[in-house]
């Protein structure tokens, strides 16, 4: 019998991350590679931020992340946001996720902790949603004083 799990996703610049979360013993894999083998170390630390905030809950789940596109730091921030969304059960349609390893009360407490730490970890970069302003200076106009 195949257990259908929900996929949580996030993007950062051109990097896309998809996360599968299930009950387990605390294994974290990124692109099917254990988290301990991810280099550089800074990228690994960024990915582990939401799991460190969750504390003991980290040892009750297994997390599998699939990341593509962008650079290594964009991928790590996308993975961190996707892991955060998976931990709190964030869905685009605002519906309660089915078969989540944590109860609703645990997820709300975890969301409060994460919001206190960094409010952009759940929603991502706020500047991403803002469109370019019409009539603003272009790249050419900023660099030179005249067009001739």
TrEMBL record:
List where this protein forms a coiled coil. none
A Gene Ontology biological process in which this protein takes part is: translation
Record region (Disordered): 128-148
Q: Which InterPro entries match?
A: Ribosomal_Su5_D2-typ_SF, Ribosomal_uS9, Ribosomal_uS9_CS, Ribsml_uS5_D2-typ_fold_subgr
Bias category Basic residues: which stretches?
139-148
Give the record's keywords alphabetically: Ribonucleoprotein, Ribosomal protein
Q: Name one Pfam family in it.
A: Ribosomal_S9
Molecular functions (GO terms): RNA binding; structural constituent of ribosome
Give the record's GO CC terms: cytosolic small ribosomal subunit
Its family? Belongs to the universal ribosomal protein uS9 family.
Name of protein: 30S ribosomal protein S9
Q: Whose protein is this, by species?
A: Marine Group I thaumarchaeote
Write the gene name. rpsI
